[in-house]
């Protein structure tokens, strides 16, 4: 029977302990980053609800909270774009 796969034509990359440790550290950092993103989303949700609740009592505090949310979201967006471009320049998006 003729096999469609050529297992002899490809050598897998050499793995070392340091390379595996870097992969493990990168995955840990990605999990922490995802957890931080979810936590910041919940924080923005709490600030939004607080702004809605405080709008009945003090409109100025409510507007300050909304401005804080918009400034924080825009700053986070700028930082994420900068980090993404830096990551693309280094190794991820090289094609």
Describe the structure.
- The structure is a single chain.
- The protein is mostly helical.
- The longest helix is centred in the middle third of the chain and has 38 residues.
- Helices cover about 75% and strands about 0% of the residues.
- It has one domain.
- The chain is elongated, with a radius of gyration of 23 Å.
- Helix 1 packs antiparallel against helix 2.
- It starts with 16 loop residues before the first helix and ends in a 5-residue tail after the last helix.
Strand and helix layout:
Layout: H1 17-54, H2 59-90
Helix pairs in contact: 1-2
Keywords:
single chain; 95 residues; mainly alpha
Can you give me a brief rundown of this structure?
The chain has 2 helices and no strands.
Secondary-structure class: mainly alpha
Largest beta sheet, briefly? Answer: none
Radius of gyration: 23 Å
Contiguous low-pLDDT stretches (5 residues minimum) are none
Q: In total, how many beta strands?
A: 0
Helix content: over 70%
How far from one another are the termini?
37 Å
> How much is the average pLDDT?
83
Oligomer: single chain
Strand content: under 5%
Overall number of domains = 1
Shape: elongated
